[in-house]
């Protein structure tokens, strides 16, 4: 009879009781390997209805009790009809009458006495599993499977703790040997959840009781595995309602599963795991609706990847109660007394923390037990509270306990660091923290409204899924539009190869912001935003959206506008805990105090402010300069052609293109500022020079820049971009003549900037220059820019950064790189 090859399948209520699923259950059993035992739960909500009907009878409402019993009967009849032929249905009707008639009698008795003892309740609720066995065994027989109905009460011997009975292993084993002797060549279909006392009273095994029966049977049969067929794909890496990317965990060790069970997963109970750990059978969780998916396997080996934790759990609706001492070294340590008092009051404690010298102690308990817990603690510590030596802190509620579980966590450094860093980077306040000695889990308590962000952030930070970056984009013009395309193109690869996903939450233009907390599709965002503007459905005040953005994982405001006044939005973003990535130079070129205030605010709130594209588009100009400065190099001069537009104009002029035509083309190519006057006035280059000079630590403003415009001042008054470009035709002949004359002298027109720190004060100049062929700027083509850093270390040969200095695609790539830097900072080392 006993054989290594036995397997146990357990089907839960959802698999049996959801119409349409039962045929799948039957197929799974029919196609299973030989030597299979099947354990079934009650169909759907049958157990709950049976409890309700007992309670209704107890309160004297027998007609209500009958209605509730009728519900159970109706479900049983409905599902039986889906899998049984005519004779089978007739036979099942007989079974059902036999099972339910005693229940009706019990209900009448309860109504008369107005009392339903735990023993009677067990008799009533035990019928759910018996109904399942009757249907499944009959339906399998009709399918040609040699199935036999087995009532587990015939071998599961328990004590008389009704509602949560304990199994007597020895007596059960002895009875099982007799019962199972008849199973040869058949598939036993066994009731889960129920047993019988030595003196013949029906008992139930408590929460997850059917799983327990399955593991018990597996142990008795020395089975190799128990497969629990349910309605999910397996143990998920996080609650899918909180983390869309959560997926099934492939492997778990028994200990990890136990840890999960202790931290509140409803999928299995410690009682289910412990017997399996003893007998060495694996527990496999699989989906009845997607049986081809491998599910989660729990065994002695567990997760083979030592670098990866398994999942993040979140236990919600909790309260955190803290007790503080005003003295160090209380004569009677408080922790043990608090726990004893809570234990006596029947309050479940999910987590405790104690400061090293015992001056503060906190407990995390169910929110619903807050009053009871406070009262028991107050009573236990009454003496010290009265003398003022101890104080109960205001209760924090509701809070959530977020736990990272992983077998190997204690064997690797920096798990706690990454856990806390990711939560801190998301701007979440950790209210309490605990890592157990088993080092299989680390838990923290956060405010309830931060639950989703905390779980998603930790989930992403440990590569359980992608790190999600939540983007609100302002500006969908040349740069913003290209950025949307690049995100759309790259997101799959970013997810697959870098574990990062960018999620677009909002897009804004001067017409307003379209924002959707559920995300916008990157390929449709431009049109959606446009229609929203036309329909008046956009939000005008972007600041009002920052609170919502801040609640999402790794929030970032991306400014691809050229709008003035954005500094107010950035300040509000930092205050809310939102990061900023910007291609907009204006906030950085504000008067020194304002610019410093902006950077200071970002630092104060530990937010990132990345702006690499404000000088030289995606060329690594700012990062290079920062590195020179950080490593202690001394910058002597920074010189370069900072404008892609002016570089392009110079190149075109040298080729004989009229100025007005070249400006129009530069605009069409996406090189110019929204108003090309900002380029031709030299203002754009002056802003860049100020940005770089300030990176050097120089204190100066735009007004300190010696600026000579590219075209005469008199042409720079026109506010309308079209009129402005039109007016430039008046300059075409004069400019062409000047360029021809300089070419005759072997010179080329360029527009250069120079920053010289100098002991006597910094000098910053920008303006047109005629260079000869030996000058580095002479070699520039098209919209190329270059920046040469002459430093102590790079005295002989300057460090030169050179390449396209303007254009939608390159700039958007630089903005995207800045966004992705946020993910690197969050994830840290793998
Ligand atoms: N085009 C380029 O090669 C480079 C541009 N930049 C900077 O990138 C920014 C965008 O440049 P482009 O895309 O070329 O300009 P663009 O004119 O094509 O796009 C600007 C966008 O900003 C939007 N906008 C204006 N006011 C707004 C507001 N208050 N809120 C939200 N959106 C608003 C406009 O509706 C438009 O969609 C500018 O600050 C520019 O200096 C930086 C490096 C290179
Ligand atoms: N208009 C600017 C765009 C980049 O900053 C330029 O031409 O350089």
UniProtKB/TrEMBL annotation:
GO MF term (any one): aspartate kinase activity
Reactions the enzyme catalyzes: L-homoserine + NAD(+) = L-aspartate 4-semialdehyde + NADH + H(+); L-aspartate + ATP = 4-phospho-L-aspartate + ADP; L-homoserine + NADP(+) = L-aspartate 4-semialdehyde + NADPH + H(+)
Pathway of action: Amino-acid biosynthesis; L-methionine biosynthesis via de novo pathway; L-homoserine from L-aspartate: step 1/3; Amino-acid biosynthesis; L-threonine biosynthesis; L-threonine from L-aspartate: step 1/5; Amino-acid biosynthesis; L-methionine biosynthesis via de novo pathway; L-homoserine from L-aspartate: step 3/3; Amino-acid biosynthesis; L-lysine biosynthesis via DAP pathway; (S)-tetrahydrodipicolinate from L-aspartate: step 1/4
Swiss-Prot/TrEMBL GO biological process terms: homoserine biosynthetic process; lysine biosynthetic process via diaminopimelate; methionine biosynthetic process; threonine biosynthetic process
Cofactors, names only: a metal cation
Keywords for this protein: Amino-acid biosynthesis, ATP-binding, Kinase, Metal-binding, Methionine biosynthesis, Multifunctional enzyme, NAD, NADP, Nucleotide-binding, Oxidoreductase, Sodium, Threonine biosynthesis, Transferase
Annotated Aspartate/glutamate/uridylate kinase domain residues: 6-286
The enzyme's E.C. designation: 1.1.1.3, 2.7.2.4
UniProt xrefs under Pfam families: AA_kinase (PF00696), ACT_9 (PF22468), Homoserine_dh (PF00742), NAD_binding_3 (PF03447)
Endpoints of the signal sequence: none
Domain Homoserine dehydrogenase catalytic: 620-820
Annotated Aspartokinase ACT domain residues: 402-462
Family matches, as Gene3D superfamilies: Acetylglutamate kinase-like, Dihydrodipicolinate Reductase, domain 2, NAD(P)-binding Rossmann-like Domain, VC0802-like
Domain Aspartate/homoserine dehydrogenase NAD-binding intervals: 475-612
InterPro entries: AceGlu_kinase-like_sf (IPR036393), ACT-like_dom_sf (IPR045865), ACT_Aspartokinase (IPR054352), AK-HD (IPR049638), Asp/Glu/Uridylate_kinase (IPR001048), Asp/hSer_DH_NAD-bd (IPR005106), Asp_kinase (IPR001341), Aspartate_kinase_CS (IPR018042)
Keyword set includes Transcription regulation: no
Domain of life: Bacteria
Function statement: Bifunctional aspartate kinase and homoserine dehydrogenase that catalyzes the first and the third steps toward the synthesis of lysine, methionine and threonine from aspartate.
NCBIfam families, per the entry: asp_kinases, PRK09436.1
Similarity section: In the C-terminal section; belongs to the homoserine dehydrogenase family.
Subunit structure: Homotetramer.
Protein name as annotated: Bifunctional aspartate kinase/homoserine dehydrogenase I
Organism: Oleiharenicola lentus
Encoding gene (name): thrA
């Amino acid at each position: 009879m006993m054989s290594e090859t036995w397997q146990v399948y357990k089907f839960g209520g959802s698999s049996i009781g959801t119409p349409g699923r039962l045929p799948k259950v039957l197929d799974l059993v029919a196609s299973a390997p030989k030597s299979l035992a099947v354990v079934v739960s009650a169909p759907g909500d049958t157990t709950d209805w049976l409890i309700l009907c007992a309670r209704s009878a107890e309160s004297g409402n027998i007609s209500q009790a009958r209605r509730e019993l009728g519900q159970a009967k109706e479900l049983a009849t409905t599902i039986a009809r889906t899998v049984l032929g005519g004779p089978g249905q007739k036979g099942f009707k007989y079974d059902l009458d036999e099972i339910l008639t005693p229940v009706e009698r019990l209900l009448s008795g309860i109504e008369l006495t107005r009392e339903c003892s735990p023993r009677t309740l067990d008799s009533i609720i035990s019928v759910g599993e018996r109904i399942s066995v009757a249907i499944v065994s009959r339906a399998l027989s009709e399918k040609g499977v040699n199935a036999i109905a087995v009532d587990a009460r015939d071998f599961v011997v328990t004590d008389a703790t009704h509602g949560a009975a304990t199994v007597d292993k020895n007596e059960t084993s002895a009875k099982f040997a007799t019962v199972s002797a008849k199973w040869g060549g058949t598939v036993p279909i066994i009731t889960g959840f129920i047993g019988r006392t030595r003196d013949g009273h029906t008992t139930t095994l408590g929460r997850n009781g059917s799983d327990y029966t399955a593991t018990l049977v597996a142990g008795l049969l020395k089975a190799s595995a128990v497969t629990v067929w349910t309605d999910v794909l397996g143990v998920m890496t996080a609650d899918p309602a909180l983390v869309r990317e959560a997926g099934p965990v492939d492997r778990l060790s028994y200990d990890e599963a136990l840890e999960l069970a202790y931290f509140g997963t409803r999928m299995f109970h410690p009682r289910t795991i412990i017997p399996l750990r003893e007998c060495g059978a694996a527990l496999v969780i699989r989906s009845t609706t997607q049986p081809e998916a491998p599910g989660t396997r729990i065994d002695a080996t567990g997760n083979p990847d030592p670098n990866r934790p398994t999942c993040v759990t979140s236990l919600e609706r909790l309260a955190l109660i803290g007790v503080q001492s005003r003295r160090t070294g209380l004569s009677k340590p408080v922790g043990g007394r608090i726990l004893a008092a809570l234990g006596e009051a029947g309050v479940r404690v999910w987590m405790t923390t104690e400061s090293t010298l015992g001056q503060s102690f906190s407990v995390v308990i169910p929110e619903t037990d807050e009053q009871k817990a406070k009262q028991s603690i107050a009573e236990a510590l009454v003496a010290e509270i009265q003398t003022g030596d101890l104080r109960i802190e205001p209760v924090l509620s509701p809070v959530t306990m977020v736990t990272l579980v992983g077998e190997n966590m204690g064997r690797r450094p920096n798990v706690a660091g990454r856990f806390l860093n990711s939560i801190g980077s998301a701007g979440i306040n950790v209210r309490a923290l605990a890592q157990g000695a088993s080092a299989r889990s680390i838990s923290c308590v956060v405010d309830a409204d931060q639950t989703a962000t905390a779980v998603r952030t930790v989930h992403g930070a440990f590569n359980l899924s992608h790190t999600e970056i939540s983007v609100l984009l302002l500006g969908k013009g040349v740069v913003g539009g290209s950025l949307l395309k690049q995100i759309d193109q790259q997101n799959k690869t970013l997810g697959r190869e870098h574990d990062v996903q960018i999620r677009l939450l909002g897009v804004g233009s001067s017409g307003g912001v379209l924002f959707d907390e559920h995300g916008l599709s990157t390929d449709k965002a431009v049109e959606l935003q446009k229609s929203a503007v036309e329909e008046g459905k956009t939000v005008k005040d972007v600041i009002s959206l920052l609170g919502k953005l801040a609640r999402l994982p790794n929030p970032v405001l991306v400014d691809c506008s050229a709008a003035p006044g954005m500094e107010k939005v950035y300040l509000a973003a930092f205050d809310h805990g939102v990061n900023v990535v910007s291609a907009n130079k204006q906030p950085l070129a504000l008067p020194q105090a304002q610019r410093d205030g902006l950077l200071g605010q970002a630092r104060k709130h530990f937010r990132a402010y990345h702006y690499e594209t404000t000088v030289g588009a995606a060329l690594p100009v700012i990062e290079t300069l920062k590195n020179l400065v950080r490593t202690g190099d001394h910058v002597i001069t920074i010189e370069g052609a900072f404008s892609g537009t002016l570089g392009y104009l110079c190149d075109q002029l040298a080729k004989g293109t009229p100025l007005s035509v070249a400006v129009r083309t530069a605009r069409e190519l996406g090189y110019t500022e929204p108003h090309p006057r900002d380029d031709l006035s030299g203002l754009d280059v002056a802003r860049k020079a100020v940005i770089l000079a300030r990176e050097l630590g120089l204190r100066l403003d735009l007004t300190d820049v010696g600026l000579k415009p590219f075209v005469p001042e008199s042409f720079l008054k026109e506010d309308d971009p079209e009129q402005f470009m039109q007016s430039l035709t008046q300059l075409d002949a004069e400019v062409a003549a000047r360029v021809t004359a300089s070419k005759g002298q072997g010179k080329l027109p360029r527009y250069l900037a120079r920053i010289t720190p100098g002991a006597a004060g910094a000098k910053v100049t920008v303006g047109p220059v005629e260079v000869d062929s030996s000058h580095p700027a002479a070699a520039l083509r098209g919209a190329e820019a270059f920046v040469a850093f002459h430093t102590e270390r790079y005295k002989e040969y300057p460090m030169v950064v050179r390449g396209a200095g303007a254009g939608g695609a390159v700039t958007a790539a630089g903005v995207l790189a800045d966004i992705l830097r946020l993910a690197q900072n969050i994830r840290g080392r793998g």
